[in-house]
Write a structure and sequence with these properties.
The structure holds 3 protein chains of 3 kinds. Chain A has 11 helices and no strands. By secondary structure, chain A is an all-alpha fold. Chain A has a single domain, classed as MetI-like (MetI-like fold). In chain A, helix 3 runs parallel beside helix 6 and helix 6 packs across helix 8. The longest helix of chain A has 34 residues. By secondary structure, chain B is mostly helical. Chain B has one domain: MetI-like (MetI-like fold). In chain B, 77% of the residues lie in helices and 3% in strands. Chain B contains 14 helices and 2 strands; from the N terminus they run αββααααααααααααα. In chain B, strands 1-2 form a two-stranded antiparallel sheet. Chain B is globular and about 75 Å long. The two termini of chain B are 34 Å apart. In chain B, 47% of the residues are buried. By secondary structure, chain C is α+β, with helices and mostly antiparallel strands. Chain C contains 8 helices and 21 strands. In chain C, the strands form 4 sheets. Chain C has a 6-stranded mixed β-sheet, with helices on both faces. Chain C has a 6-stranded mixed β-sheet with strand order 13-12-11-15-21-14, with no helix packed on it. In chain C, strands 16-20-17-18-19 form a 5-stranded antiparallel β-sheet, with no helix packed on it. In chain C, strand 17 and strand 18 form a beta hairpin. Chain C is globular, with a radius of gyration of 25 Å. The relative contact order of chain C is 0.12. The chains are: A mainly alpha, B mainly alpha, C alpha+beta. Chains in contact: A-B, A-C, B-C. Chains A and B meet through helix 1, helix 3, helix 4, helix 5 and helix 6 of A and helix 1, helix 3, helix 4, helix 5 and helix 6 of B. Chain C: Keywords: ATP-binding, Nucleotide-binding, Transport. Chain C: This is ABC transporter ATP-binding protein.
């Protein structure tokens, strides 16, 4: 069954491809701890200076607070909306289901610039002041489709008769949801929260256009790119962000798998 | 749970209402506003004037050679990115599906998706750092004495294509992988059994069956890259603007929202038309039920 | 018998539509207290829908369902005196065995220790004593089934509904569980309603069986009556094996006794109780008989009420305990050039030799075992 003959060549290619994927990211920690101010080889020696500068920067701290506020709010709201949508699409038939779900998932493929610009036009037109609140509005829209994707997998792997069994055994509909459905999809919910959080934390375009004068981590990074002297600090910040993303994703994946193991399901399938 | 069809529809509609309302409010209403701006407003002096229905904004775009050039370039660059991404991704998806042991697949998928979940901005910025005049590649090459003068890499279409191909790699791998996984392995054995060579089996059985995944990958890469803002800005250095940059300039820089709206609508329309044609051309692959 | 017991489930004029699809048609059915009742039929015949209507998971388009004398239209599933064992067992995977069994007791006012005792008792009843602390998702198919039974029975329902409960088990396990279910039903004494597509399972377990086709009950009878006197040709085909021979009706007397000329068997007179209906699509009357009602004469002595016919052995299929013979009856070919052979079964008792293909033989049969479909 396996193409053993071309397996070796393919494997080499796949490994090269992974290197290509990771090459830029590997540079982050390398230069974040590099004593030189120019991002070029050879390395100049080890330092934690950039991390200290990063920590001492008040604008950066403000950006961090903003980013965390936005990411926490967006992920919770997006996951709540995602639960509604995933439950509706996996359990019920209703008219217009396909187009409605397609429409809600649209931000996954729609160019962000258009989402950001149209929202900006409306907000400005309505006289609403730009703030982290308006960023949250946009981020919830961007994160909801991903939350739905994760939650739909969680909800659809549930046997419908589990819910019926709970109902049959005397529980109310809400009781059946709370005692059976919710515990079983909880890993999916945590996974959706983590993924939404990561997306929001890393999102640039909407934050750039809708935040007004408030900095977020990505917009702060963007504003500093013009200044060569600031690059090493950005490297340090990037290292922290990427490390955080990877930890959150690994956690999300862990919860998703634990959820599968718990209900005895097997199967691969990634985060997308 | 004595649920008739009707009450099931009501329950489903009730559940879908909150996310749907949110999308209507935050997505549909703004998009419709863009549409309204582009057809009913004109920039005159410092304010936007309501004109009644007008095609003036679209006329301006149609006659503007700069906009046409930018539009064509955006579509061309996106096309190149899509081609490069899907071609580079297919062998990886194939390797994942056909060669990697089942218990290792999850790990590989995880490894491939991780870079995607790290900040897009930072990844683009890193490519800039890598390709700069005094950046990682040039400093390494001159340091090793391979070249004397630094090579210009930034501000080229090639650099944009590579950066975007890197950014959208998982988007291409995952749908192709899913399509390959769905292929009944006995079909391939049947192909071999019927006397086809390995290559011909791939060509006549595997590839057609993987086409739904390839088509999904093409659309998923092509549609958002047309509207990419960060890469032309950072890697193109503003020299190679694409539609997103142009829209931003019109909307904010020149404060011409009607024209910016008309551009957004035109860009979405162009992408939709191209995606539609692409789907139509490949319809026969999508009709196959596996 | 259960004839004199009070009705537990009464369905009258039941209809169920899904859009244009007519899932249940004019179902009239009474299931009595303490009865082991089966709904039997091929997939899509409406048996599961009927079970779910009784459970309260599906509403009805017209008609009435009464359980223990009370109308059920407005009673939701969680308030009905029925409990269900699901086809997939629907064991809650995040709970232990004991938590699963105790699930329905949550709203009960009894003390924790009383509930624990009930759980232990229920587990013992299904042969899972000491399994309480185990994780439910680690159980085998048979064990899940038992947990599902204990979970439903602990609530002392008036009716236990079982939706294809044995279909996921392998053959040996299935046969074992059939016996256990019968014992369990006798022990608890409540009404069991079983949905199955396996006619053998229904025959083994049930007091009475409703055979369903296309949303209708085709026959409602005890297992023996169902087997020996199928109401129509389709029921006969669905339950066990039956041979069909073309027949011509040559006369009928005032009492309803019908004289028929059966291809290969000759002329017989059949009383009304041996006469059933044809199903639409059949053109000609048929006479049917079960494989075990015809005997190879070389193997047993003739008895007085039996008749004899010559035959040739066409095919021999050896099953260990049984041998099946496909026979070509003498004279069966007249007028029906391509008449199919009939199949008979012989137990392989000690000293009885298995016959060879092509052997000329004689068979004995009794008119009393024939059914006329007209």
């Amino acid at each position: 069954m396996k193409g053993r003959m071309n397996g070796g060549g393919l494997r080499a290619y796949a490994v090269l491809y992974l290197l290509f994927l990771y090459a830029p990211i590997i540079l982050l920690p390398l230069f974040a701890f590099n004593a030189g101010t120019i991002i070029a080889f050879p390395l100049k020696g080890f330092t934690t200076q950039w991390f200290q500068e990063m920590w001492g920067n008040p604008t950066l701290r403000r950006a961090l607070t903003n980013s965390l506020t936005i990411a926490v709010s967006s992920s919770i709201l997006a996951t709540c909306l995602g639960i509604f949508a995933a439950r509706a699409s996996t359990r019920f038939a209703f008219p217009g289901k396909g187009p409605i779900m397609g429409f809600i998932m649209l931000p996954m493929v729609l160019p962000e610039i258009i989402v950001a610009m149209s929202l900006l036009v409306v907000l400005l037109g309505a006289g609403i002041e730009l703030s982290i609140l308006t960023v949250i509005l946009g981020h919830v829209l961007m994160c909801t489709p991903y939350a739905i994707a994760v939650l739909t997998t969680a909800f659809s792997s549930l046997d419908k008769s589990l819910e019926e069994a709970a109902f049959d055994l005397g529980e109310t509909r809400w009781g059946a949801f709370r005692l059976v459905i919710l515990p079983l999809v909880m890993p999916g919910i945590i996974s959706a929260l983590l993924i939404s959080f990561t997306i929001s934390l890393d999102e640039f375009i909407i934050a750039f256009f809708l935040a007004g004068n408030e900095p977020t981590l990505p917009t702060y990074i963007f504003s500093q790119l013009r200044f060569p002297k600031a690059i090493p600090v950005i490297m340090a910040l990037g290292t922290v962000l990427v490390a955080l993303s990877i930890v959150l994703l690994a956690l999300g994946e862990y919860f998703r798998r634990r959820g599968n193991a718990r209900i005895g399901a097997t199967g691969t399938g990634g985060l997308v | 749970m004595a649920a008739s069809r009707r009450s099931e529809a009501v329950q489903g509609a009730t559940l879908i209402a909150p996310p749907l309302l949110y999308s209507l409010l935050i997505l549909a209403a703004p998009l419709l506003t863009l549409l309204f701006y582009s057809f009913f407003l004109l920039k005159t002096g410092y304010s936007d004037l309501e004109q009644g229905f007008t095609l003036e904004n679209y006329r301006q775009l149609a006659v503007d050679p700069i906009f046409r050039a930018i539009m064509v370039r955006s579509l061309w660059v996106s096309g190149l990115v899509t081609l490069a991404t899907v071609l580079l991704a297919f062998p990886v998806a194939y390797y994942l599906s056909f060669v990697v042991r089942p218990d290792r697949k999850a790990l590989w998928l995880f490894l491939i998706t991780i870079p995607f979940w790290t900040s897009y901005l930072i990844r683009v910025f890193l490519w800039k750092v890598i390709m700069e005049q005094n950046g990682v590649i040039n400093s390494t090459l001159t340091g090793l004495g391979i070249i004397d003068e630094p090579v210009t890499m930034l501000r080229t279409v090639g650099a944009i294509v590579m950066t975007l191909a890197h950014a959208y790699a998982p988007f291409a791998i995952l749908p192709i992988f899913v399509a390959l996984e769905k292929i009944d392995r006995s079909l391939l054995e049947a192909g071999r059994d019927l006397g086809e060579s390995r290559l011909m089996t791939f060509w006549r059985v595997t590839l057609p069956l993987a086409m739904p995944g390839v088509i999904a990958a093409v659309l998923i890469v092509f549609i958002p890259t047309v509207g990419d803002y960060v890469t032309p800005e950072l890697i193109g250095g503003g020299r190679i603007p694409m539609v997103a940059n142009f829209i931003q300039v019109q909307m904010l820089g020149l404060n011409n929202r009607p024209l910016g709206s008309a551009m957004s609508v035109s860009a979405m329309l162009a992408v939709a038309v191209i995606a539609g044609i692409f789907l139509l051309v490949n319809l026969r692959y999508l009709k196959v039920r596996q | 018998m259960t004839e004199d017991r009070k009705p537990m489930i009464e369905c009258t004029g039941l209809n169920k539509h899904y859009g244009d699809y007519h899932a249940l048609r004019d179902i009239d059915l009474t299931i009595r207290e303490g009865e082991f009742f089966s709904l039997l039929g091929p997939s899509g015949c409406g048996k599961t829908t009927l079970l779910r209507v009784i459970a309260g998971f599906e509403d009805i388009s017209s008609g009435a369902v009464l359980i223990d004398g009370k109308r059920m239209e407005d009673v939701p599933a969680n308030k009905r005196p029925t409990n269900m064992v699901f086809q997939s067992y629907a064991i809650f995977p995040h709970l232990t065995v004991a938590q699963n069994v105790a699930f329905g007791l949550r709203r009960d006012s009894r003390s924790k220790s009383e509930k624990d005792a009930l759980v232990e008792e229920a587990l013992q009843m299904v042969g899972l004593k000491g399994y309480g602390k185990r994780a439910a998702h680690a159980l085998s198919g048979g064990q899940r089934q038992r947990v599902a039974l204990a979970r439903a029975l602990i609530l002392k329902p008036k009716v236990l509904l079982l939706d294809e409960p044995l279909s996921a088990l392998d053959r040996k396990m299935r046969e074992q569980m059939q016996v256990e279910l019968i014992k369990l039903q006798r022990q608890v004494g409540i009404t069991f309603v079983l949905v199955t597509h396996d006619q053998e399972e229904a025959l083994v377990m049930s007091d009475r069986i409703a055979v369903m086709f296309e949303g209708r009950i085709a026959q409602l009878d005890g297992p023996e009556a169902l087997y020996a006197r199928p109401a129509d040709r389709r029921v006969a085909d669905f339950i066990g094996v039956m041979n069909f021979l073309p027949a011509d009706v040559t006369g009928e007397d005032a009492e309803g006794n019908v004289t028929v000329d059966v291809s290969g068997l000759g002329e017989v007179v059949l009383p009304p109780k041996q006469i059933s209906r044809l199903t639409s699509g059949d053109e000609r009357p048929m006479v049917g008989f079960r494989p075990e009602t015809m005997t190879l004469l070389s193997a047993s002595a003739t008895r007085s009420q039996e008749r004899e016919t010559g035959a040739t052995i066409d095919e021999v299929v050896y099953y260990g305990d049984m041998t099946y013979y496909d026979l070509r009856l003498d004279g069966s070919a007249r007028g029906d050039g391509n008449a199919r052979p009939v199949r008979i079964s012989m137990r392989n008792v000690f000293g009885r030799e298995v016959q060879d293909v092509g052997t000329r033989t004689r068979v004995a049969w009794s008119p009393g075992s024939l059914v006329l479909f007209r």
